[in-house]
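Researcher: Please predict.
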Amino acid sequence: MDLFFFYASLYLGLIMLLSLYRAVAGPTVLDRLIGVNAIGSKTTVLLVVIGLLYQRVDMFVDIALAYAMLNFIAVLAASRFFQKRKGLYDETRTGER
């Protein structure tokens, strides 16, 4: 069973690379925020899987919940910042006012 969780964590890591590509090369700020949020969500699941591997689920679930809450608040704050700055959708349009 440990081998299953190990391969599941490797698979999650590979999927996180796809989200990292979206976060780095996204054409708009919104795409980058979605990529960062997806990485944070997958990290939360990865923490729980690591807890299953080490047979300390109780400790890792607490860490995963704290990380998920921090990720949620950070994405909300960043989206609010870019919405106030009017840069959430306007990155593709250059030269317009």
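Model: The first helix runs from residue 2 to 25.
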